[in-house]
Specification:
There is one protein chain. This protein has 18 helices and 16 strands. The protein is α/β, with parallel strands linked by helices and 509 residues long. It binds 3-methyl-2-oxobutanoic acid and zinc ion. 3-methyl-2-oxobutanoic acid binds next to strand 6 and strand 7.
């Protein structure tokens, strides 16, 4: 079967999305999981954009051996040199050069003529080719550009050495039939097109990113750029899991395969959601909590008799755990370890002991511990392993008569114990004020969201917060059955990430 190249840009276009600030270790963790998922190309970042991005691309280039590592660069020498510097040690490096090609972008943003842009595109692809044989070129905003001009640009950059030409629907403006025609036209009209792979990169502003990508595949595209959970700039990018499962489920239409291990999809989706702080909507195709849940009695009846009556994909094919065993306070170490493995976690013995103790603590309070609860316990444990300050104790008084008051005890660097108390307009405000007095880092709270991980009165509450300090946004997450404790943990998590970023910057990272 013919194959499409899966190009994942979660760590570049996905990361670009407001507030999705992952640190270097987290980006490497996502890259390793993408490698397990079997993506062909990982766009690891935009190295010239910040020292942190440069370092994370370099770290990924070192760590990941079974995928091509791509770095983004604008069409200028400094960007290309920096991108190459970051990926040059990769087993299989790729440079991705882009420049705007629509009239509206060239006239109002670049203030350059068609000829100037064409000349830059060719010159910079040649420069990139001086470093590597694997060069991708993107004429940005191609779907709104003059088609004849795009043909000319593509012919010229392929002649200059581009091995992949990527057609971006940068503002998510295209509709499927039109985008398919654009790809077919490129295939027909660019004389040297057979020397390059046609790629597509669709944004989701009209909710059509996946549909446009699939129509492009039907018309000859052989690389699809996408992100896990569809995260990305504005309304996001084409969702990897949706594109992958559409071509796999409808092989009769597409007649094309990917190299993905689709059983890693669910785990990858959970990891990206956990680390970026972008929740997955419950009705999201393939990875949403309801994607394989049947509510209607008629559907339930059908699925019991024969799953294919209402299920077009076997959930296990995308790695959704089967959950045959109910976990609770009678579950032992062995069963717990097995469930962790099923969920895709391989913990060291020491880490396992800690998570198992947390599981037992939860199982004492809750009759049934769900997979989502277990994922939350592991995430909570991982968050606390790299802390500068740790929440030791928290006591809050609140109600409609008194003044909300919080007393907080933290352990700080070198195990030093710190305690203080504060009043607030509400219990969470009082907790944050008390923590601020102890940690003393100025910041502004910009987002505060509470979600319950599972249903029921005994659900674990998960708090997501974002804080801003010196123009940079930091995400924090915390989970606990007590929502005030979860809020305190989320705030500590955001502060610890802020402190780590400051330390890395001070140490020249
Ligand atoms: O959306 C876009 O046009 C991009 C390019 C850099 C490929 O992200
Ligand atoms: Zn994009």
């Amino acid at each position: 079967m013919d194959k499409i190249i899966v190009f994942d840009t979660t760590l570049r276009d996905g990361e670009q999305a407001a507030g999705g600030s992952l640190n270097i270790a987290e980006k490497v963790e996502v890259a390793r999981q993408l490698e397990r998922l079997g993506v062909d190309v990982i766009e690891a970042g935009f190295p010239v954009s910040s020292p942190g991005d440069f370092e994370s691309v370099r770290a990924i280039a070192h760590e990941v051996k079974n995928a091509t590592i791509c770095a983004l660069a604008r069409a200028n020498p400094a960007d290309i040199d920096s991108a190459w510097e970051a990926i040059k040690e990769a087993e299989s490096p790729r440079l991705h050069v882009f420049i705007s090609a629509s009239d509206i972008h060239m006239m109002h943003q670049l203030k350059k003529s068609h000829e100037q842009v064409l000349e830059l595109a060719v010159g910079m692809v040649e420069r990139a080719r001086g470093y590597t044989e694997n060069v991708e070129f993107s004429p940005m905003d191609a779907s709104r550009a003059n088609t004849e001009y795009i043909y000319r640009v593509l012919e010229a950059v392929i002649a200059a050495g581009a091995t992949t030409v990527n057609i971006p629907d940068t503002v998510g403006y295209a509709v499927p039939a039109e985008f398919g025609r654009l790809i077919a036209g490129i295939k027909q009209s660019v004389p040297n097109i057979d020397s390059a792979v046609i790629s597509v990169h669709c944004h989701n502003d009209l909710g059509l990113a996946v549909a446009n990508s699939l129509e492009a595949v039907r018309n000859g595209a052989r690389q699809v750029e996408c992100t896990i959970n569809g995260i990305g700039e504005r309304a996001g990018n084409a969702s990897l899991e949706e594109v992958a499962m559409a071509v796999a489920t409808r092989a009769d239409i597409f007649g094309i395969a990917t190299s993905l291990d689709t059983t890693q999809i669910y785990r990858t989706s959970r990891l990206v959601s956990e680390l970026t702080g972008f929740p997955v909507q419950p009705n999201k195709a393939i990875v949403g909590a309801n994607a394989f849940r049947h509510q209607s009695g008629i559907h339930q009846d059908g699925v019991i008799k024969m799953p294919a009556t209402y299920e077009i994909i076997d959930p296990q094919r995308v790695g959704v755990p089967s959950s045959a065993l109910v976990m609770g306070k009678l579950s032992g170490r062995h069963a717990f370890r097995e469930r962790l493995a099923e969920l895709g976690y391989g913990l060291s013995d020491a880490d396992f002991d800690q998570v198992f103790a947390a599981f037992k603590g939860l199982a004492d309070k809750k009759k049934e511990v769900s997979d989502r609860d277990i994922e939350s316990l592991v995430a909570e444990y991982k968050r606390t392993t790299t802390e500068h300050y740790h929440l030791e104790r928290l006591q809050v008084t609140c109600g409609d008569r008194g003044i909300p008051t919080a007393a907080v005890k933290l352990s700080g660097p070198g195990g030093k114990e710190l305690a203080d108390a504060a009043l607030g307009t509400g219990p969470v405000d009082a907790v944050f004020k008390a923590i601020n007095r102890l940690v003393g880092v100025s910041n502004t709270l910009t987002e505060f969201t509470v979600n319950s991980i599972t249903g029921g009165i005994d659900a674990i509450g998960e708090v997501l917060i974002r804080i801003e300090s010196a123009g940079v946004s930091y995400t924090g997450r915390g989970a606990d059955m007590d929502i005030i404790v979860a809020s305190a943990k989320a705030y500590m998590n955001a502060l610890n990430r802020l402190l780590s970023a400051h330390n890395t910057a001070e140490n020249g990272g």
